[in-house]
Amino acid sequence: MLKLYQADLSPYAARVRILAAAKGLKIEFLPPAGGSLKSAEFLAINPLGRIPCLDHDGAIIPESETICEYLEDAFPTPTLRPIDPEARARARLLSRMGDVYLAPLFQQLLVQVDPKMRNAAHIRSTFDDLEAVLGTMTNYVEGPDYAVGERLSLADCALAPFFFFIDIFLARTFDLPSPLRGSMKLYYDNTQKDPHIARAIREMNAALNSRLAR
Which end of the chain is flanked by fewer CB atoms within 10 Å, N or C? Predict the structure, then answer.
């Protein structure tokens, strides 16, 4: 049995949901045990205290990239890894760029969400950094529909939720133009033609609207 401790707004959890849907996996989606990432119940399951976290018949797998790779190994058909070694390396590179270069920047912005805590210069500078990273990524995203090749890959699972955060959440929160432009904006828009990505984006958007309504 597959269980995923997760939250709909988390781009890391959405990454796993996209892969699971594309593979037709039956997964039970659950909030963190005990109702909190730092609850004793959840820490007993995942000492890292982070989501998503996969429980596969008692095998506990944390971290979204590791979870996706595990599910690829455990359920190899249909594969979301490109067949060609160079294309497969590019997919891994793009996933890695999302985790290493994009995610830390929007983490910096998340702490600025409270209007009382905002530093306008820092926000503008971080948006500029996001735009620069996205510009570099244009060298590796093939597009226009998928990041690598002509079908869904692990790279799309990683990037599409990040791009939602950049294009919808951050730009809306800070009332700034989205740093997603040109070919990267076209790629993000086109990825949502994929039903698995479109579903995850709808779930993220619903969770965001619910949070903003509080």
Answer: C
